[in-house]
Amino acid sequence: QVQLVESGGGLVQAGDSLRLSCAASGRTSSMYAMGWFRQAPGKEREFVAAITWSGGNTYYADSVKGRFTISRDNANNMVYLQMNSLKPEDTAVYCCAARYIGGNMNTQYQYNDWGQGTQVTVSS
Q1: Which H or E run contains 73?
Q2: What b/e sequence results for 82-110 when a residue is b if at least 16 CB atoms lie within 10 Å of its CB, and e otherwise?
Q3: pLDDT one-digit tens code per residue, 19-74
Q4: Coil, helix or strand at residue 117
Q5: Total Cβ atoms within 10 A of residue 69
């Protein structure tokens, strides 16, 4: 099991940038990948991005491709989400999650451990 703690959320204006961080602790050596998901008020949680822990392969939702960048720091068990050109529709609670198997990176049920989330609010 892995414990995950997100940070870096806040209130920004449209067009601004923000970087989210996710600190992992516990059995991080067992992780296959980590992902970022978000949930806006009244909407279902959706996939944002993922990165494999060893190879660093990245995956993105179409809605954030070209604007968001996921990265990792294996030595410090950190995953980051750099968010540029933010839009009001990016407003949501952002959570990081860990998975221990391969497959389709946007499949939520394959992520076993989840953080509490950090709020991102983008004003127009």
Answers
A1: strand 68-73
A2: ebeebeeebbbbbbbbbbbeeeebbeeeb
A3: 999 999 999 999 999 999 999 999 999 999 999 999 999 999 999 999 999 999 99
A4: coil
A5: 16
